Amino acid sequence: MVSITNLHKKFGSLVVLNGLDLQTPESGIIAVLGPNGSGKTTLIKSILGMVVPQKGEIEVNGQRVKKHWNYRKDIDYLPQIANFPGNLRVQELIDMIKDLRGKVARDRELIDLFKLEPFLDKKLSNLSGGSKQKVNLVLCFMFDSPLIILDEPTSGLDPVSLIRLRKLIQQEKEKGKTILITSHIMSFVEEISDRIVFLLEGKIYFNGTVEELKTSTGEKDFEHAIANILTENHA
Amino acid sequence: MLKILKYSFYDLSRSRWSYVYFFFYLLLGVVLLFLNNDLSNAVITLMNVIIILVPLIGTIFGVMYFYNSREFTELLLAQPVRRSSIFLGQYLGVAISLSASLIFGLGLPFIIYGLFQSGAIWDFASLLISGVFLTFIFTAIAFNIALSHENKIKGFGLAILVWLFLAVVYDGLFLLSLVYFQDYPLDKFSLVASMLNPIDLSRILILLKLDISALLGYTGAVFKQFFGTGLGAFTSIVVLILWVIFPVWRIKRIAAKKDF
Q1: Full-model pTM
Q2: Could you count the other beta carbons within 10 Å of the beta carbon of residue A26?
Q3: The ABC transporter domain covers which part of the protein (chain A) (predicted)?
Q4: Per-residue pLDDT tens for B20-31?
Q5: Phi, psi of B14, deg, nearest 5
Q6: Nearest C-alpha of chain B: how many angstroms from A90?
Q7: Which of A16, A57, A185, B95 could form a disulfide with B139 if both were Cys (CB 3.0 to 4.6 A apart)?
Q8: Which residues in chain B have Cβ-Cβ distances shorter than 8 Å to A48?
Q9: How far is CA A125 from the centre of its chain?
């Protein structure tokens, strides 16, 4: 699905990605983890072509990313911070994205799922953080694309919505899609992900299943296994 | 790109400022025409207003729109849309809506006044053409500045400085250099200098059309002498087109390299 070779990205003098290589499997949920500032979002934005890397090659479904845009029709993306044009209404925003993509969308179903009906004609600037995140989720999941990228999908959600989101992600996985997730909620990651990719200093430090991570660090608990990697490297 | 243009235009058509701008021109046109009763006087007064105000509004609106639509831009960047279409679409949205305010705001009172029956229609057209050119040029310059400056205050300040330089300071420097070097032949120098400033260029374009030699000034006179009225107008339009093309090309170039 996604294949990355020797990716380098600097912002000024700050090296964020330093020769990163990654191949994702055909389907399944891959969690991208790492401490703050380890380059998770930069990696995701490079795949989407929002960040232009200095060196390296990214391919999505065999299509090169650099200077192309059409491959993005196969990607559903959930940005980390739900920043929307404040003067639009929720329904207008949904219609606009549908119009831009020109694909069949299941927005009705998702609006019901996240109980967004009463907010449809509210302006986006008047929504709470959690409601914005729900709109964000509707925009992301309404198209049936084979690759889904979720940057901190849990942020701001109440427990009920969190359960719904978890179910939604599982359903998408069963359709045989590739799902890339970043999150800081370890219980969420442990429960849903098939593979863990751990970023450290702009490179991939660990790439394997949750079980493999536990055995390689000698910790029984997932959260401790992650903490173990961090303390070992920063001690 | 047309879809982006549509949404930018739709967004701006709901903005209060587009209407303020439109009504300002409407009022200006009505006052000048119906209190003045002399069409060519009105055109000259309008020229003086347009040449200073249109670049200022284009600059401020361009910078403001670019910074305010950052969220919209980020949303679009993740969609299957070409990068250049996003920025060119937004640019055209701003430039076209400002031009529309100008054309309709001034056009309506002139039509009511009976412009189509008078011979001044081409003078008036040259005024609108220069106004539209200045809108497209200064909006493009504003987008260039906003794209290269992440910091809003810096971007805004720089944009205002550029406007101030081209609208006011440039002429002062130009005049000073004419006085200082008056012993030398200055025809070629002033020809080039006026082409390097789109505001001067549009002034010359309008004055050549109006054919008022008293107002032409030194550069205008050189222009007229060098090219004649017809060729002079043609040359200034070609240079104005270049003034649009270059900043737009640069928008495309910077946008292709920028990280979001």
Answers
A1: 0.88
A2: 9
A3: 2-226
A4: 999 999 999 888
A5: -95, -5
A6: 13
A7: B95
A8: 77-78
A9: 24
